[in-house]
Amino acid sequence: MTGRGDGGGAPGEDRGAGARPEEAPVSGPAAEAAGPVGRGEGAEASGGPAAAPGGGPTGAAAPEDGGAEQGAEDGEWRKLSPMMLVVAPVTYLKNFIIPLILMAFGATQNPWALVSLFAALAGLAVTGVFTWATFRYQVGARRLEIRKGLISRSRRTIPLERIRGVHVTSNLVHRLFGLAVVHIEAAAGGEGSEEGKLDAVGAEEAERLRRLLLHRRAVLRGDASSAGAAADTPPSGEAAGTASAGAASGTPAAEVGRTAAEPGGGGAPAPAGEPEETEYFRMPARWYGFGALSVGYLLTPFVALAAVIGLASQVAGDLMERPGAVAAGERAFLYYRSLAEGSGAPALAAVAAGVLLLVLALMPVFAVAAYAVNHWDFRLTGQDDSLVTRRGLFTRQSVALERRRIRGYELGDSPLERVRSAVRLRAIMTGLGGDSTRAVLLPTGPRARVEEIADETLGGYTGGLVRHPRAALRRRLVRSVLPFALPAAAAAAAGLYWAAVPAALLALVGIPLGADRYRALGHGRDAERISVRWGALRRTQAVLRREAVIGWTWRQTLFQRPSGLAHLTATVGAGSGGYTAVDADLAESVGFAAGVTPEMIRPFLAAPAEPAEPAGTSPEKQEPPE
Amino acid sequence: MWTVESVIAHAVVTALLAGLAWGAAAAGWSWIPDGAVSYGWVVPVGYALFGAVETAAVPRVRYRVHRWEVTADVIYTRTGWIGREWQLVPVSRIQTVDHTQGWVERMFKVATLEVQTASHAGSSTIEGLDAEQARAISEELAMRAGELRDDAT
Lengths: 626, 153
Known about the structure:
The complex is a heterodimer. Chain A is α+β, with helices and mostly antiparallel strands.
């Protein structure tokens, strides 16, 4: 199944792509230009015969159907889309729109600015041509190769097994021209390093690359079974029509590929032969309303307002430099003064208040709008061994998260969202930092539905959460109240009532805060997963797979000792690195850890009185020499 | 060894304080009150006393509370006097094993072993091991961790 898929799918897609008029003439000369080099590479890569398909990409698909290895060798060197030549200067120009407008209004006092701008654009176009002419990439059976450069050449080889993620972005300009940028991440390098970037290829080509890379990686890793299973599952959504019908009736893969690769960008259905996608989630219209609950998005109007004010002041500053502007400004100021001094003062105040009210009233509207732009048509689909999210109205993002690297997930909500019982879903992944927006699996939505989807995609958590002991509540209260209560008492004692009152008020506010923090605490486990919940106001519940836990740490301070509390941290090589059950009962938490990873804890459970301590009978136990 | 390190640290601080007090007295700046100058010796002497007590007591307590153990699967460390900490690191999840020796440590032929996992929260340190033993353990751990073909995350 997989072998046939590889052999048939890729060339079929080639032909489909060939239907695009600008690609056909391009790939011809490109292949020739790369000829001598390419042949040498091909021979080195695969040892002879497999290099043959490189010469003729349209070479017969049928004979290759048998062997996955041979069929998977896609030796063709491809180039970036020539549309990139148009897009790059346009993108660059976007940054200069405001100066350009100002220049147009300012009657071009400085012709050199304009000249230099055009010179820069011309230079950009020339370098763009060079980049385009020299940049080529190849997806081999085992690796992806990218070459670029005319004078100083660079060549980068990424083994396909090492690819951690492939994500596709396309901003508004890209989408106008039907392009997309493909980012390829591999395990090497530092944080957030990007191993390969194809800027930019056609949208279909991007989609094809993403599928191809992820699929070949899956095959290489030997989970052919899972890949096959994924290909066998009936696809849902739009792919259902053409693709599954084609697969079922045994239509030649190439033909289905051609039907499927219709121009339409974004949601091009899966070409048959390559793995199908299962759609788990598509954003319902109602969910955009949750944007109004997000504090970050509520503040966007203010950010926008600040930007507008900044721009206005800049424009005003530029205008002021022109003769006559000063006089006009003075007249305006005098008019303002007369208004303020006369009967106009209340009117001015009313206008100011009105503007403020308007902004406040518009806040949710703007929030929903901004939220919708970011999360437009949010989709979560599954392919092979990855989960893929797509979102965005103008800039469309597509992120593939490898299932193998997902250790669990986080459900988070803010107090506002809790009122509507809405939560958001993030993946806990190795190789992604704790705060990466790429880990977002689902936008904010009703808890029941989000949990349902989490259950479907990653496996749900069925165990309850153990409440932490009452002593933890005392500690939370002390923590939230004392820092304000002590200064308040001190200030009151010193007779500084102006300082004591606000501090006392803050201390009072601390009581519900502390209680809330206590209510958020909890931990628990079921057969396969553990869960920890914490948070002040913004609550997060992490659900981790059992085998993701790579260590335990208990921490106990002097103040925790009398009440038998301790922080238990489950260390995880993913997400933020560790998940802490704050102020858990020491004995209970040891039992909890022993239940999760018995082989790790049991050897140390000899002395029940102080459970985390070894009995001291172990032969290897050593005292550190002084 | 901790005693020696403590002695050195306290001696340095005491010397610094004494130098400061002497300097203040010698310079005779007018803005320093007379009392502070004449009683300037109190600070370094007081600190030296404190240092002596700490040197006598703390290393012993530290020695008493530091425990470590390497079993077949897990490295267990216990540290802390006031705030206590217990840490368990499974051998199969070890990413790197560091074996370091400072100059004082070399004088006493001891070493520090640091075990790191994929998570920054799960790294564990054992101080004051016998040097030979530390080397043997680090080699053994590295070997055992290397036997696993997983990427241990």
